[in-house]
């Protein structure tokens, strides 16, 4: 079995999935991914939706994305075990070792902090890579274009400033 | 908590955006496509931030270009509807900056993160715990702090909004341009251990 598909096959399949999800035969809504995080935080910390207006606001979208996320975990696990065969426990990505450092503590601390801020950023913007880039841009939404431009610019600037220019031996 | 989780399934069942099974299958396909094309890898996302890997932008631009054309005709046929997010300028710009910086360092986004956890990435699991706390902080301080930062709702505009009868032409030009961009971006790939083992 082929262990990976090229970018164009991935792009076409993602477009088809997006169109199916949008269609009245599918879910009649866009694909999104970041709303499930505050939704799950609400479940986990047992916050009362009556008390927190935000939870009330995201109740429908959070639940939908929550179920989709469970599917994504399952789909990712099955594909990594049986198709891409890339399942293995690991802590530091290869490129992090190459362009940043080999410290477990450093990677975990940066992961934790960037994971924390990523969700705050996504929720401030009202969407993430899935909601704005994939779903929003496909609808030519102006909100998605603004988010897309800002994210692309800061992503590339951060990439340039945060990582070393030259690769270290892994 | 068990009741709340059951409540999640009830909400989806009653919401009319597909059955629980259908939404779960959409998730499986979403995770499967991401894993199979490997765009959940740190090497692909942080690699793009360093301009050492272009698989993510190539795939993204192609998917959006094709979907935008397809979606337009599906809407014309009555098979789909637009679901536009409003323009909240403060939220989009400040949130976008925070999101872009985090995405470059984390090498994941909220959609690809879980798929990475599913292939055994411990660092991403730690990042997801950080994300849950971020979601908690956002929920707790939404009313006094974050809502103010996000700013007023400037409406739900689309690119074709002012194009009138030229909507279909605008969409075709937009879609074809994105597909062309996806093909014109030179292909660069950053490999990880799994690839090196395979090459060796």
Topology of helices and strands:
The complex is a heterodimer of chains A (170) and B (200).
Chain A: H1 7-22, H2 36-44, H3 53-57, H4 59-82, H5 94-99, H6 104-125, H7 129-138, H8 142-162
Helix pairs in contact in A: 2-4, 7-8
Chain B: H1 2-15, H2 20-37, H3 42-49, H4 55-76, H5 89-106, H6 112-117, H7 122-140, H8 142-150, H9 167-184, H10 193-199
Helix pairs in contact in B: 3-5, 4-9, 5-8
Question: Can you offer a commentary on this structure?
Answer:
- The complex is a heterodimer of chains A (170) and B (200).
- Chain A is an all-alpha fold and 170 residues long.
- Helix content of chain A is 66%, strand content 0%.
- Chain A is built from eight helices and no strands.
- In chain B, α4 runs antiparallel to α9.
- Chain B is globular.
- The model of chain B has no long low-confidence stretch (mean pLDDT 93).
- With 200 residues, chain B is mostly helical.
